[in-house]
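The record is kept unedited without comment:

——
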Amino acid sequence: DLDSVEFERFEVYRSVTVAAERISNAHEAPFQIDAALSTCVSRKQPVYLEVLEDVWRANVLSLLLILSSEV
């Protein structure tokens, strides 16, 4: 999963932000992003979002369809 260098880098961000998320699953991304941004706004402090490349490439339309069916 995370090698030691990536883990250490992530822990540095975690120590200086109010929330740090490593987004590795496209289906969970909206929930992780929403939680981090809600924390950012409510606490008025920075957050760190690390998004893996394959998540960036995920089909956004299919994610929206999945989310709308869960409501």
About this structure: Residues 26 and 51 are 9 Å apart (CA to CA). The chain has four helices and two strands. The two ends are 31 Å apart (CA to CA).
